[in-house]
Amino acid sequence: MKELCYIDHAMADEKKYRMKELERLSGFNRSTIHFYTREGILPPPRKTGRTSAYYDDTHLRRLNTIRKMKSEYGKATGRSRMPITLLRALRESGGAAGGSVISETLDFDADGLDRHERRRMEIIAAALTLYTVRGYYRTSVRDIAREAGVSAPTFYLYFPNKQELFVEIIEYVIGKFKKDYREALQQEGDLIVRGYIMLEAFRHNYPLIGEVLNQLRSGAAAKDPWAVERLKKIYHDLTEDFTAEIKEAIAEGLYRDLDPELLAYIFITLAEATFQRLGFDDEYAFEDIAETMIECVYNGLNPAPRVE
Length: 308
Known about the structure:
- There is one protein chain.
- Helix content is 70%, strand content 3%.
- It contains 14 helices and three strands.
- The chain has helices at residues 2-12, 19-26, 30-38, 57-77, 84-92, 98-105, 115-133, 141-148, 152-158, 162-185, 191-221, 225-251, 260-278, 286-300, and strands at residues 16-17, 46-47, 53-56.
- Strands 1-3-2 form a three-stranded antiparallel beta sheet.
- Helix 13 (260-278) runs antiparallel to helix 14 (286-300).
- The longest helix is centred in the C-terminal third of the chain and has 31 residues, at 191-221.
């Protein structure tokens, strides 16, 4: 009951819209708005009577997010209709990060690919979407094919099985992460700034990296040997360039002579944990976290002798 009172109080501070006004402001017709409400993609309106209901800025913001997602999906795939499972993923995330996740998931130039490569990337994108909603182990080849708009036999023309598709996804995600920061590092020699660049690239790609890690951790917890080995490999791939940077910092006397590989794992683990903090509220920006982490790591690894 306390929660209901809180919701009503919050709505009192929001602008209220009748259906006709919400249609005008959002560009969606009432049948679409009702459909999104039935699917749980939009929260229900506030009822003020048997036939009267009000919508607020929460509904308008969510509809604007949906419009942006649909536009991004159309540009990336060339399709006018967006699968409902993508919008259900927005519901699962509470509407906070859906747009950015979809942008990262579909980060490929459809116009620049031939038909075969474009279809292959569409299958990868469909799989990533379903893994977010259902998880790797609960998603079948048939599910992925249906989401990608192809038949199961067509799926097998591109990938021999679901596991090999997941390997391809892992390589795509890690390859994109490394490509992002390696290009930026070419023009930067300062080791501290280089660390900041790599951390920013990790944050930018974390929606996909985090999703892959979650699926592998789930398999590792279930004692799947394949998932355990893949999890080890992906952490090696994530940390190998950090390890090389730390070795160079040690050689230049910036860091004390500690285990570079272990420090790289600690750095990545700290980054994962602090990225979660970003999603709680707006109190901190990425710059706050990056500066604090780098300052802490740098000063904590300073070669000056510890004062007892």
